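call fold(seq) -> C-alpha cells
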Amino acid sequence: MRRMTMAALAVLTTFSACNTLKNAVEASSDLSKLGGTWELNYVSGPRIAFNGLYPGKKPTVAFDLAEKRMSGNSSCNSFSGKLIADDTSINFNEPMMATKMACPGEGEAIFFSTLKKVNKYTITGDTTLNFMMGDIAIMRFTKIQ
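ret:
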C-alpha cells in the first residue's frame, strides 16, 4: 500500500512539474515580439533635449529573427550586425558594420554609446520596446513596422 501511495505521489509530482514548466516557457516568449522595426523616442543621460539630439530623423533599429540579424539607422549612418538576444537579454557589444558619413551634433555618438550599455529588454503591449541597463530603462522605442 505504501509503494502505491509513493508511486501515485511521484506521478502527480511529475505531471504538475511538466505543466508548470510549460506555462513558464509560454509566458517568457518576448523574443518573438522583438522582430520588426522600432523608432527611438527616449534616451537617458544627455543634457540635450531629445529633439535637439535628433532634429531631422530619429534613430531606428530593426530585428530579423529568422536571420538572427539587426540593422538600423543612427539618425545619420546605417548600421547592421549579428543579433545576440534571448527572451529577456540582448547584447550590442559585438562589432557592427556602419556607414561613415560625417554627422552633425552628438546624437549618433550618444545613440551608439548608450546602445553598448544595454543588457536587457522588455516589450510592453507589443508596441513599446525598453532597452535596459540592469533594471533601469535607458532607451525606449515605438514599433513602426
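Residues 31-143 form a domain with the Lipocalin fold (CATH 2.40.128.270).
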